[in-house]
Structures are given as C-alpha cells and as structure tokens.
Design a protein that fits this description.
The protein has about 70 residues and is of the alpha+beta class. Helices cover about 30% and strands about 35% of the residues. The radius of gyration is 11 Å and the shape is globular.
Length: about 70
C-alpha cells in the first residue's frame, strides 16, 4: 500500500468533492480517499501498482485539474 496526495484545482463546493472522491474510487486498487475542499487536495491510499497518472486521468476526466503530486 502507498499514499499519494494530489493538488486539485477547480473544486468549488461539496458536490465537487463528491465527484472527485467518486472519480478516485473508480480507479482499481484505490482503498481509501480523503478530499479537502479547503486545501484543494486529495489523499489516496492505494495498492502499489496504482500510478499518479491513473489518478490524474480519473479526476481530469470530470473537468478538474490535477496540478501535481504533493
């Protein structure tokens, strides 16, 4: 297991938080997701094979921007 933190732009409300959370949970191997609207970030616990790029792709497919891995 590993933990990846993403910096995410474009979230403006709790609805956005739910969308980002669901997008991250849709990636196979993700076991836990915490999304912070205030910090504009997400912390993901996932199996070792899960890549930053797969997480970025899942979030960006919903119109949000992943700036970087924190």
């Amino acid at each position: 297991m590993k933990e990846i933190e993403l910096k995410i732009l474009g979230m403006t409300c709790e609805h956005c938080v739910r969308i980002v959370k669901n997008a991250l949970y849709s990636v196979e191997g993700v076991s836990e997701v915490e999304v912070s609207l205030h910090e504009k970030s997400a912390r993901v616990k996932a199996e070792d094979h899960v890549s930053f790029e797969s997480l970025r792709s899942a979030v960006e497919s919903w119109g949000y921007k992943v700036v970087d891995e924190v």
